[in-house]
Amino acid sequence: xxxxxxxxxxxxxxxxxxxxYDVFLSFRGEDTRHGFTGYLYQALCYKGxxxxxxxxxxxxxxxxxAELIKVIKxxxxxxxxxxxxYAFSTWCLEELTKILECKxxxxxxxxxxxxxxxxxxxxxxxxxGLALTTHEKKFENNIEKVLRWRAALGGGQLYVKQLxxxxxxxxMFIQGIIKEVSSTILYRTNLFVAKYPIGVGSRAEFVExxxxxxxxxxxxxxxxxxxxxxxTTIAKAVYNRVADQxxxxxxxxxxxxxxxxxxxxxxxxxxxxxxx
Length: 276
Prior knowledge:
- 45% of the residues lie in helices and 12% in strands.
- The protein contains 11 helices and 7 strands.
- The strands form 2 sheets. The chain has a 5-stranded parallel β-sheet, sandwiched between helices. A two-stranded antiparallel sheet has the order 1-7.
- Helix 4 links the parallel strand 4 (75-82) and strand 5.
- The relative contact order is 0.12.
């Protein structure tokens, strides 16, 4: 994701932050460029979303270019279109790993499973298993690269919110994606964490693991310590990491100070209801 604002206390959304793109499309060209992805791109543009699609103008190689990495980082949403031959492309797999890195910093990621079952991707079966086995033979001297791709495809963060199109009407499926994108662009807000968030990521990840969201939808974790050591900073970072996994979210600051009168309690209630 692009850099956070420099004025502490500010939040940002797609309407206030200078993003280059609303949507980045990751897809296997030969599978869907002239079909599903092409129609999705047209629909996104028609709705007014600035969408990046690789028109094969970028120079190809085993790794993605610095230019493309910049595009991914400067997009509010990345849509990953998993098709039958997606994993055969090392370019696509490198895009995927970069997108998931951005997701850790709060980028919205929407996986779309087009005529493939999500379990085939997660468990790396069928064409996805064959593709990874092929890569292991090709990159036997750099097996870490393939292990990174396997971890990206099998990681649970891809399957929290997903859209699956095995059969059915493509137009209705695309409209569902448009609705999801519209909801994100209009309502998503990230909190400013820190100008130089050194060391925050690992601590936020630790707290996120304590929340254990995937196995329990109600969880409370307390962060305590002396004033000024970064409790709120960590809480903000955790919020940015997990907010996308819920239909609604709200971050209430200084609750004790802001609940000393009936009026201030009502203001907190209004903020909570407004945001969720």
